[in-house]
Amino acid sequence: GSNTVEQIRAEHPKILIFMMAATIDATIMQTALVRGVQGFIVKPFKGDAVLNTIRNTVLAMVKRQQAPT
Q: 39 exposed, middle or buried (CB, 10 Å; 0-12, 13-18, 19+)?
């Protein structure tokens, strides 16, 4: 349901959440980002593409945390 991401985020604030779907449009993406999704994986997918998405998301998060405030 729509509250799943919020529940996961509340219980596990540091967990990475990726959305997997056959199609992801801009509206879905924006809503998911607001709810706490970090990355998107579009089906059908290959293993290396999934790993690259996760890696790039983690690297971007690390850079944001290291950026001077």
A: buried
